[in-house]
Amino acid sequence: MAVGQGDLSIERAVRGLSTTRRQWQHWIARGWLKAPGGTGTGYTTELPRAELSVLRKMAQLVDTGMRPEVAAKIARTAVAEGVRIVHIDTGVSILFKEEP
Fold first, then answer.
1. Does residue 48 sit within a domain?
2. For residue 2, is it within any domain?
3. What are the C-alpha distances in Å from 6 to residues 9, 11, 25, 51, 85?
4. Which of 44, 58, 89, 96 is most buried, taking the most CB atoms under 10 A from its CB?
5. pLDDT attached to residue 44
6. Could you tell me if residue 3 is inside a domain?
7. Single pTM value for the model
């Protein structure tokens, strides 16, 4: 599948985060991240910018100890709604810093 303009490699997007190739490939396989082409050997691992933003936020949350399936929902909500603050429960919110 052709990669659209503005798409970036995952490796480049996750520089500086502690997530590993194996982790995000597992996240794609589980459906927590959406790869337009496919996964596994022989596929170029590139994602649209919005999905890379989900990946970065998800990795940040997992780094804090959150389970990946929960982190994926919160990260996807933040990106889909275009917000930096996601309200989890009464009095509980997550604030994402601006991305560089």
1. yes
2. no
3. 10, 15, 21, 11, 25
4. 58
5. 54
6. no
7. 0.77
Per residue of the chain (100 residues), give pLDDT as tens: 344 444 556 777 677 778 887 888 889 889 999 887 665 555 556 778 888 889 989 999 998 999 999 999 999 999 999 999 999 999 999 998 876 5
Q: How many other C-beta atoms lie within 10 A of the C-beta of residue 80?
A: 10
Question: Is 1 among the domain residues?
Answer: no
> Which amino acid, 9?
S
Domain that holds residue 50: 8-95
In order, the DSSP letters of 41-90 are TT---EE-HHHHHHHHHHHHHHHTT--HHHHHHHHHHHHHHT-SEEEEET
**Residue 24: which CATH number?**
1.10.1660
